[in-house]
Description:
This protein is mainly alpha-helical. Helices cover about 70% and strands about 0% of the residues. It has one domain. Keywords: Membrane, Signal, Transmembrane, Transmembrane helix.
Amino acid sequence: MMCALGAAVCFGTASVFQAMAARAAEPGTGSGVDPALMLRALRQWRYLLGLGLDAVGFALQIIALLHIPIYAVGAAMAASLAVTAVAATRLLRVRLSGTEWGAVGVVCAGLLMLGLASGEEGTGEGPPALKPGLLVAAVLVLLVGAAAGRLPDGPRALVLGLAAGTGFGVVEVSVRLIDGFSLTNPAVYALLLGGGAAFLLLTSALQRGSVTAATAGLVLGETVGPALVGVAWLGDRPREGLAWLAVTGFAVSVAGALALARFGEPPPPGPTPDPTPA
């Protein structure tokens, strides 16, 4: 669980740097899958620093996925929004409202419940169709991202965020299904394709459109689906007699993260002052 929380700190801090770099980059084609936008962002040190933090976070996430249930790791990843909010108060000089600080506290309380209730990771491998199904899901993430470029900014950000979250969710499940590197294991390709697609789509979502919609979709995509797969097919279970606490902790963590999804949304422009003296 400490590794999962460490990953959340890395991912949450990286998001601040990557959002700054993505918004400073020149506009791209408008497509959800825009490699040129990624290349422009890579020219900025903030984005490179964010990628370095992502690499450390991913290593910690893998360790966590190999020792605790997916639902606990997913909730910790959603909690990275709380880290993003706190980091932004330092790096972006923004101020959190009392409600936003309350949401940070809610996320922490939910994670504490999960930490107390989570058992060890399951030992199931799921049905035979699960590994190729993950690869199909990763391909669909790319296709949805390409199609989302034609949507208006509001729905576009939500769809891209949800697709990016699904891509990260594919990575979470794939890690559990890889037992030694093998080129014949579809989960290996699902991990690579799902992770790469998620980065592309998330960069596009942050570059244009609603931060609220993008992050809300991201939280839902990377938590709910993988958690259900872990419980239904991979044998993830809470500690004996603490299922209620695990369910409550998961729900509270995700709800707090969704409340924080409003953080970072630029305020609506106010009325233009009249330059004519009274």
